[in-house]
Design goal:
Number of strands of chain A: 4
CATH topology of the largest domain in chain B: Barwin-like endoglucanases
Largest sheet of chain B: 6 strands, mixed, barrel
Distance between the termini of chain B: 75 Å
Strand content of chain B: 5-15%
GO biological process, one term (chain A): transcription elongation by RNA polymerase I
Family (chain A): Belongs to the archaeal Rpo5/eukaryotic RPB5 RNA polymerase subunit family.
Structural class of chain B: alpha+beta
Bound molecules: magnesium ion, zinc ion
Oligomer: heterodimer
Protein name (chain A): DNA-directed RNA polymerase subunit Rpo5
Radius of gyration of chain B: 39 Å
Number of helices of chain B: 27
Strand content of chain A: 25-35%
CATH architecture of the largest domain in chain B: Beta Barrel
Strand order of the largest sheet of chain A: 1-3-4-2
Shape of chain A: globular
CATH architecture of chain A: Alpha-Beta Complex
Catalytic activity (chain A): RNA(n) + a ribonucleoside 5'-triphosphate = RNA(n+1) + diphosphate
CATH topology of chain A: Eukaryotic RPB6 RNA polymerase subunit
CATH class of the largest domain in chain B: Mainly Beta
GO molecular function (chain A): DNA binding; DNA-directed RNA polymerase activity
Order of helices and strands of chain A: EHEHEE
Chain lengths: 79, 885
Amino acid sequence: MGKFDLLKHELVPQFRIMTKEEVEQLRKDLGVRKEDLPWMLKSDPVSKAIGAKPGDVVEIIRKSPVAGKSVAYRYVVPG
Amino acid sequence: MSFYELIKSIKSIKFGVLSPEEIRKMSVVNIVTADTYDEDGIPIEAGLMDRRLGTIEPGQKCQTCGNRVGQCPGHFGHIELARPVVHPGFAKLVYNLLKSTCWNCGRILLTKEEVEKYALLMERYQRKWPQLRLRLAERVIRRASKNTECPHCGEAQYKLKFEKPTTYYEEHKEGTVKLAPNEIRSRLERITDSDVKLMGLDPRIARPEWMVLTVLPVPPSAVRPSITLESGIRSEDDLTHKLVDIIRINERLKDNVDAGAPQLIIEDLWELLQYHVTTYFDNETSGIPPARHRSGRPLRTLAQRLKGKEGRFRSNLSGKRVDFSARTVISPDPIISINEVGVPIDVAKLLTIPERINPYNMDQVKRLIENGPDVHPGANYIIRPDGRRIDLRFPKDRKSIADAVEIGYIVERHLKDGDIVLFNRQPSLHRMSIMAHKVRVLPYKTFRLNLCVCPPYNADFDGDEMNLHVPQSEEARAEAGVLMLVQEQILSPRYGGPIMGGIQDYISGAYMLTRKGTLLTREEASQLLARAGYTGELPPPEISEPKELWTGKQLASLFFPKGFNYSLKSNVCLKCQTCKKEECENDAYVVIRDGKLIKGVIDKKSIGAGQPESVLHRLIKDYGTDAGRDYIDRAFKLFLAYIDSRGLTIGLDDEELPAEAKKKVLEVIRQAEAKVSELIDIYNQGLLERLAGRTLEETLETKIMQELEEARELAGEIASQYLKDSNTALLMARTGARGSLMNLAHMVACVGQQSVRGERIMRGYMNRTLPHFKQGDLGAEAHGFVYSSYKDKLNPIEFFFHAMGGREGLVDTAVRTSQSGYMQRRLINALQDVRVEYDLTVRGTDGLIIQFKYGEDGVDPAKSDHGKAVNVEKIIERVVKAGGS
Ligand SMILES: [Mg+2]
Ligand SMILES: [Zn+2]
Ligand SMILES: [Zn+2]
Ligand SMILES: [Zn+2]
């Protein structure tokens, strides 16, 4: 069996590690600390696949039946 | 110094463990005697009711703080335990601590490098992710307890076993050894502060050895008051009983130790002491028998006081009793508005609203004061600006009091028409379970409510009771009136449609009024419209020769706003292959143009409760909640007026079938029976073909059930064909007012297969359901098929099978309600603080984000069109229709 790339699976949405500037902007827009975003573990298969480290913020773009496209963010924590 | 500088705000709360020193420090008396009172009823010194523990008798001064009953906060005492015992609440933690530390040198079972690594990590977590600290601690403990040799002193580690609730064993080569609590305590003492930190504890407030008790705090007497019965016998609180047990065993243990008794006896007493302390904390600890009262009732100790529905949290802290509320039986009132609630005059005289006197209400308020507490629009109290309350019950001369009041006085006046109150029916499962209503003071003793608000409350009138609350501030009333008023709740976020609307007779009435052939004379039409509160002109009659006659549709049209356009399929629609729309010969396609009902009958699909995309829904969305409320209040009265004038009833002859139909029904059932026995024959010959994923027996069962179900359906169809159009049960089923065609078929044709757990009835005797059948009989009759209709009567065997099926239904509902109730509790606890912010993000407490945009699209389902923000099709249709006409 060949190596399976989970990021290419149809049901896995788009993940992207955000840059420092983007994170800062997001923080300002939402008026929160990074810790107040929903969390995602470093041991999450996707974190491993995209190389996210604790402290990173990941942007997730999902196809949504109600909104067409919806954007969410996850704060990566150790564990 | 300003006011705000003086106010402290709580930043965080930290929980720790009481150290023996702290327990002794906060204690005012060392309790050594198990007795409470002497013969004269005086508390014994150093006993459990020592005067220094606080006063409970009124008039007495506390021996510790000098305060009287209300002021004295109560004071703790303590018991010096002869031997240490494990605190049962920390037993698991103690096990983890023992497992991951060396029994010899007390260091954590990690190498120096690991310790450094984890210490660094712990420090970082503490700074950045304090919530993850405990998970790291878990990891450290898991890691350390794997080590079988101490990296510090090199000693081999024994395997530890923990037996609930408070026993620990060490597995030596020679056999297992029980660890005594004092040994455990000395091991815990040896753990260094830095190692304690690694395992997730703060050693300053929670040293491990404090989890093995050497001193036990004794709560103040106010926590466990003794009660004196009328007979003069004093009865002590359960906690006191338990403390008595602890002191008795403790003293005996102490005496035995001092006397140098054999080890065995001491160990027995020690274990007994541990048992008593464990049950003192929690008398429902698994693994040990609960301590009982002399009567055999289990004692209610510390944990039981807090836990569960009757515990401190749910019963006293989350659940509070309130003033300004009333509860009584509800009954229907089709005349009052849906926004109103009928309040009995006796209730209105007890519930009050504080009203401040000003130049404008002075005269009116004076009249209320003169009326006093016993005459309805009256008042119960006057509050003067200095805070003094004047009770209006007692003074003879209220006139002079009324004359004496001035601007700025507050009068607690009776509830009167138009006041805003909150009305509630339990279980409060959704937000429409509590709505704001306007008061209508009415005679008699029940709360009255409009029938259209029954669905949101899920109320009926078979004895249901409801609660009423009176908001006391102007702000609260304004908020309730704007946000919670019934008319603001008609559109439910659950349905995407109106949750309130016509039920039962409203629908039957609307149908009968608006169907073809309803013609009314001038007198009849006027009568109906008058009852609906219509004050406009009568439209020109539909038929003027030979007599002036108005159609029902004309009358129903009078309540639609001008310019209102809508069309839909009604409930009576036969769902033909291609809908002929306007040309439907059953008048089942509703067309409203420019506020006139041109075609179609009004039934459940147009005005029913919980019907999305209905006329009512459109009306409220396009013309607002005021128009919606007005339509329900007025047009619905017209429907009731018509059904009142005409009458609607069902009787036995509605369930009667002509002989021809009966024969046909019988024939259908006989045929099905023949097919069933044919199937059984095939099965017996082993020729039945197995369905995929089923056994042969299951295949046979499925096929038989299919056959019988089809037969019942067919019988029902035949029956409904033969029922007359004038049959009111059929009318109600077709319009959606009440009941279904299946209910009707059960009554007139055949009740059909009874089932338990989704299968034909199989239980009972050996290889048969009842002794009336042969063993192994697979036929319809032997497994719960009811041939008869309810009207014909069920034979005893059918009746029995029917009862079996019916019982399952009852059990299911009972189980479902309890299960869904518990689920609801947990969901509400989890979601109660979640809210949508102005930027459309969904956040919990402290602003932590749950959704970045509410529902991903930010649409309020109550204001949406089928979940979408706009319904383009409907808008186009409306614009085109409006332009075309
Ligand atoms: Mg009821
Ligand atoms: Zn005191
Ligand atoms: Zn060691
Ligand atoms: Zn149709």
